[in-house]
Amino acid sequence: MQIAERRVASFHYTLTNDAGEVLDSSSGREPLAYLHGAGQIVPGLESALEGRQAGDKFNVDVPPEAGYGPRHEGLIQQVPRAAFRGVDELQVGMQFQAQGPQGALSVVIAAIDGDLVTVDGNHPLAGQTLHFAIEVTDVREASDDELQHGHAH
Q1: Which residues contact 115 (CB under 8 A, 6 or more apart)?
Q2: All domains of the chain in start order, with CATH
Q3: Would the CA dihedral through 32, 38, 40, 43 be positive or negative?
Q4: Which residues on neighbouring strands pair with residue 105, listed in sequence order?
C-alpha cells in the first residue's frame, strides 16, 4: 500500500543539518506515525513521502520554503526585562509564549544585555535546509476516528 491521502504512514527518520550534525532522530523509539495530508509534518517531507510504501528507504533534502520557512528578522525584537514579570532568572534559550498581532507566538530568548532581552519568534529550524534519512515502516488506511480528529492514533 502506498502513502496517500487518508492513510496513516509510520517511518523512522534521522534529521541532520548542513554540517551533518544530527538534530533529531527516531532511533531507539517508535516510528513517527502521521495522517498523510493533514499537515502534521513539514510540507517538503510529506511531499517526498507521497507514493512510498513500507520498506522504502531514502534521503530527502527539504529547503526552508518547504520546511519551517525562511527566517524573518521582524520576528526578532528587544523587549525590556520587566516584560518577564514573575520570572526570577532569565537565561538564553528559555522559551515563552508571547501575544503578537496574529495571536500567540512561541519565542526564545536569544540574548540578554542588561535590561534588554532579545527574543526570537522564528522556529529554531527556520532558514535551514533539512536533511532527512527516512525508512517507511508501515502504511495503512486511516480509521474514521483518525480522519475525524485529523491525526493518527
Answers
A1: 80, 81, 82
A2: 7-68+125-149 (3.10.50.40), 73-120 (2.40.10.330)
A3: positive
A4: 98
Q: Which of 54, 47, 48 is nearest to 10 (CA)?
A: 54
Q: Helix, strand or coil for residue 110?
A: strand
- For 6, list phi and psi in degrees, rounded to 5: 70, 20
Give the C-alpha separation, 142 to 153, whole Å: 9
pLDDT digits (tens, 9 = 90+) for 68-107: 999 999 999 999 999 998 888 999 999 998 877 778 889 9
Tell me which residue has cell 527566517.
Answer: 71
Distances (CA, A) of 60 to 16, 91, 121: 11, 35, 27
What separation in angstroms does the CA of 33 have from each of 21, 27, 72, 117? Answer: 24, 14, 30, 38
pLDDT, residue 99, reads: 77
Distance between CA atoms of residues 147 and 84, nearest Å: 40
Task: Give me the residue label for grid cell 527518520.
Answer: 13
